[in-house]
Amino acid sequence: MTDLFAGCTRLLDEAVERVGTHPVADEVREARTRLAEPLRVAVAGRVKAGKSTLVNAMVGELVAPTDARECTKVVTWYRDGVTYRVEGVEGGGSRVPLRFDRRDGALEVDLNGRSAASLQCIEVTWPSALLRKMVLVDTPGIGSSNEDVSARTERFLERDHQAAPADAVVYLLRHVHQADVGFLEAFHDDALASANPLNALGVLSRADEIGVARPDAMASAQRIAARWRSDRRLSALVQNVVPVAGLLAEGARTLRQDEYDDMAALARADEALVDEILISVDRFAGSSAPVGTEPELRRRLLERYGLFGCRQSVEILRRGLAPNAQALADELLVRSGLPALRRDLDDRFSRRAGLLKARQALFVVHRAAAALGDAELAGSVERLLSQAHELSEIRVLNLIHQGALPLADGDLDSARVLLGERGLDPAVRAGLAGGTDLVEVRAALGEEHARWQARAGHPLASPEVASAATVLVRTCEGLIAALTSP
Ligand SMILES: Nc1nc2c(ncn2[C@@H]2O[C@H](COP(=O)(O)OP(=O)(O)OP(=O)(O)O)[C@@H](O)[C@H]2O)c(=O)[nH]1
Ligand SMILES: [Mg+2]
């Protein structure tokens, strides 16, 4: 819990008292409630980028529909809860329970004749360990041929007249597209947080399709992601880009014994014959060669794992790396890239949840104070904004991303790392590998401290540089103090 978060919670309590029955009261009360809830992470991207598949992979169950039915056009919230429940929120805000069923493990929601357009959103309550940590929001594709669907997602993510419903966004990209960049820029365009990658993470999605499902597809995807990470346009918008083969991850997390048996039968069959049909989707799905599984079953495997997943499974099984279904699932999961994304989400979002949530709440109080004409409340927001060191750090990061700090490249790199761009582990922020010995970390932070003190005190430093350097000095002091305290 950060100072900012505690200060913000107190401020929200005060704001709730002060708004009384003013029309902004509901918004302020909601913002207060939200501070106590898990971080809200939206999964966004263009049509068919693999958003719903990734949601399923993260939750570890087939909760999000991935076909073209009406449900995929509605913003859908996934929250943890003690029981399974699905509700539709209608235009006016009223809630209606929706019937649902599970077919082959997949959640099917019955809109009971309602159109997607008549619903603001769907709320799914699902007991899940991941959802206890974060609320996930699956959004309809941006840039869909259906303007309404696109607009619904853009309305959801962009701040319009309210606080953004999501605290952070995982943005799926298949190819860098001008529309992606434009969208991300709009998402960041607000007074409290202008263009910073603090709350957005990029995923190079459907990574297995790069290099047409060849065994080295993920390595190629890694290289492309690395290029994107260093692309100035993108790195100003997202913190990191991680390649993920979502379909493989989804399959791995929901792998069934019968699927393991089918893959194992393929791995035992004549190697030359199986390799021959694994060349293409058409051959794999259609061949009548004796390969231990019927075409019907192979088509099902293709749907669930893609050609890449089938090839990987056969290879893993042939090498004897998966004596049972769980072992195969574990091996496939690692190869999907999902564990790396989960680590990134924990490191960049979960650990910063207090800060990310506080920013949203301050935004609401800031607006409420203006609506009420309450100068005292506005003053409290300003004070918190100016005193909270975490927010000063974000301001420095923004300046760096805007190219507004005239510093040498080495200094800029060190500042970005210190400010947590590579992760929030103190060792990583000191420019070292995670898990480095504390004595070494402290020494490295001491050097950074000296570097920024020198910049802050340099007689020729511009006011922006001096002020940024002062923030970084404080950052080093905070990190060193945290290492020293028990
Ligand atoms: N090969 C492969 N296919 C994928 C992957 N992720 C998703 N797909 C397929 O791509 C199609 C679209 O996936 P969804 O998860 O529904 O994509 P979405 O972004 O939610 O789509 P909309 O909500 O309609 O915009 C489905 O047929 C998925 O099976 C992946 O990682 N690899
Ligand atoms: Mg979808």
Question: Could you walk me through the main structural features you see in this protein, from its secondary elements to its overall organization?
Answer:
The protein has 486 residues and is an alpha/beta fold. The chain has helices at residues 3-19, 25-35, 51-59, 129-133, 147-157, 178-188, 217-229, 232-235, 246-253, 257-268, 271-277, 281-286, 295-318, 325-336, 338-349, 353-372, 375-387, 389-401, 409-418, 426-429, 438-457, 463-484, and strands spanning 39-45, 76-79, 85-90, 95-97, 99-103, 106-110, 119-125, 134-138, 168-173, 200-204, 241-243. It has three domains: 41-245, P-loop containing nucleotide triphosphate hydrolases (Rossmann fold, 3-Layer(aba) Sandwich); 255-332, no CATH class; 405-484, no CATH class. It contains 22 helices and eleven strands. The strands form two sheets. A nine-stranded mixed sheet has the order 4-3-7-2-8-1-9-10-11. Strand 3 and strand 4 (95-97) form a beta hairpin. The two termini are 16 Å apart. Mean pLDDT is 87; it is low at 189-195. Bound molecules: guanosine-5'-triphosphate and magnesium ion (MG). Magnesium ion is lined by residues 51-52, 72, 138.
Explain briefly what this protein structure is:
With 486 residues, the chain is α/β, with parallel strands linked by helices. Helices cover 54% and strands 12% of the residues. It is built from 22 helices and eleven strands.
